[in-house]
Amino acid sequence: MSLRTDLAALWETARERPVAATLEFGSLAVCVALFVGTFAAMASGPPTGRGGLWLAVVVVGAAFVLLWTVAIPLYDRAFSEQ
Q1: Residue 21 and residue 19: Cα distance in Å, rounded?
Q2: N or C end of the chain: which has fewer CB within 10 A?
Q3: CA–CA distance, 40 with 17 (Å, rounded to integer)
Q4: What is the pTM of this model?
Q5: 18-76: pLDDT as tens digits
Q6: How many CA atoms lie within 13 A of 57 on its CB side?
Q7: Is 78 exposed, middle or buried (0-12, 13-18, 19+ CB in 10 A)?
Q8: How far apart are alpha carbons 21 and 14 in whole angstroms?
Q9: Which of 68, 55, 56 has the alpha carbon at shortest distance from 27?
Q10: DSSP annotation string for 15-65
Q11: Using CB atoms within 10 A of its CB, is residue 17 exposed (0-12), middle (13-18) or buried (19+)?
């Protein structure tokens, strides 16, 4: 398959399931932001005082984990077709 065919298939899948596509692409963006944020926090040294960037990385990471381990399964269970 060519790249154009792969991208067309990806776009078609995203149009069929816009909520799932938004969650997946949003998850990718959060993972990239956490990766960059973690390195920025490490470059700033160990956390002191209120935490700042370290606290942001931990809170965003915890929220991301809770989204995929609690919220999404509950949504699937509540709104899945029987």
Answers
A1: 5
A2: C
A3: 35
A4: 0.78
A5: 888 898 899 999 999 999 999 999 998 888 888 789 999 999 999 999 999 998 888 88
A6: 17
A7: exposed
A8: 5
A9: 68
A10: HH-HHHHHHHHHHHHHHHHHHHHHHHHHHT-S--TT-THHHHHHHHHHHHH
A11: exposed
Q: How many residues does the chain have?
A: 82
Tokens of 4: 């154009």
Tokens of 48: 């002191």
Nearest to 20 by CA among 61, 66, 79, 65: 79
pLDDT greater than 70 at residue 82: no
